[in-house]
Amino acid sequence: MADLAGWRVLVTAGGTREPIDPVRYIGNRSSGKMGNAIAEAAADRGAAVTLITTVTPPDFEGSVIEVETADQMAEAVWSMNDQDVVVMAAAVADFRPAAVHEAKLSRRDGPPVIELEPTPDILAGVVERATGATIVGFAAETGSLDRAVAKALDKGVDVLVANDVLAEGSGFGTTTNAVTVILADGSSQPWPLMSKREVADRLLDLLLAMRSGSD
Ligand code: CTP
Questions:
Q1: Can you list the domains of the chain with their CATH numbers?
Q2: What separation in Å is there between the alpha carbon of 165 and the centre of ligand 1?
């Protein structure tokens, strides 16, 4: 099936790592499996895929840009023009250490005070720049998804894929996911628990319908 032939699809995956010193970082539990599944599914369906990731990419027909920090991810994402679809599945740190210590912090010096500063909002930059693209954001929530509709409207994305990372079978490191998909008109569709690859294909089906104007 090559129903996405001619599409340029940009996917981000994994969790960013924000350095504290040369050996330590602030990170998160994202495994990159959801983003990898989307990149793989889109490539299998004929799209030209670029995967910008902090984790090991799948063995697939696509280009890969490996990054570590939110800054590097922002630079890589914002340098990609003319995409048809941008899927921001990565878990990007919202804050990073304001200063990175050049040498390893020593236990002898006692507990450090680490001042944080905001990272760039990559998705906001995409919404601003990629005017012709269909933009998909992700929202990892803990518990209720009530905030997710407001988040979708606030972020200005075309689709927001929200999940409760504390729910059984969902979230970080699992091979399955139960997501709720929210559209720009505020409507939402809860999808049943399925494999991340099935979520990926269903998301691509939705994007196909949206881009051909039939949704
Ligand atoms: N994201 C981003 N740049 C950041 C942080 C997040 O592009 N610096 C993107 C993620 O890739 C994801 C979405 O924004 O697509 C996730 O947003 P989320 O962290 O849920 O939203 P916040 O506005 O940070 O909400 P919260 O109030 O839960 O922190």
A1: 8-211 (3.40.50.10300)
A2: 14
